[in-house]
Here is the input.
Amino acid sequence: MSNLTLIIPAKNERESLPKVLDELKGYSFVKNVILEATDKLTIDAIKNYDCKIIYQDSKGYGDALKKGIETVETELFCIFNADGSFDPKELELMINKLEDDKYDFVFASRYEENCGSEDDTFVTLVGNYIFTFLGKIFFRLEITDILYTYVMARTSCAKKLGLTAKDFSFCVELPIKAQRANYKICTSKSFERSRIAGKKKVNAFKDGLKILFSMIKLFFRY
Ligand SMILES: Nc1nc2c(ncn2[C@@H]2O[C@H](COP(=O)(O)OP(=O)(O)OP(=O)(O)O)[C@@H](O)[C@H]2O)c(=O)[nH]1
Ligand SMILES: [Mg+2]
Here is the structure.
């Protein structure tokens, strides 16, 4: 048994998720897929795969990840998208940062030297830059890609953060609360691939506003 659980949030990913699980076959990590019980097509598409299906309590990306973290039983976990955009080869690098270098949270980044993305648009690139900058200025966060949320962490640390965001503002709540709790944080180089199939769930404008409001609330410690 591995000491790492992949938390795989999935919503309407019947085309991509089986391919992601195929690629993960060579890895001995625990694989937990978190989805809504009503997402029958995705559930049906992965029923013969080596993974555990966990139903989220309510709706939303943050709600799924909160449930995912609560139910991890291994020492480490990593948030791993169901759309094929995260490269599992990068996990080793992240594990080393936690195990050898004794960091508590590793935030993968598309915006460091020799990194990149096939999936970025102009809007997401600029949005990310702005939110990463706000994170630096208002929360002293030394990470370089705040919205990516390819994150590996020590389970015991993440469970203590009191995460509450049900939507995509989870992306900023996690690093901000980890930093506030004085955990050791670092970054790791990444290249984001384009999603295999299916539709993007993020709406740049609507979710961008929610993330901004969430940062303002977190700044005033609500
Ligand atoms: N359980 C659950 N998973 C979700 C929800 N929203 C998004 N996801 C999953 O979270 C991951 C990230 O969502 P994406 O739609 O890929 O977001 P994105 O990476 O900004 O968008 P793309 O550029 O299209 O890749 C994917 O695996 C989604 O299936 C949700 O409401 N519930
Ligand atoms: Mg994606």
About this structure: The pocket of magnesium ion (ligand 2) is lined by residues 81, 83, 85, 195 (CB under 6 Å). The helical segments are 16-23, 40-45, 61-70, 91-99, 122-139, 155-159, 170-180, 204-219.
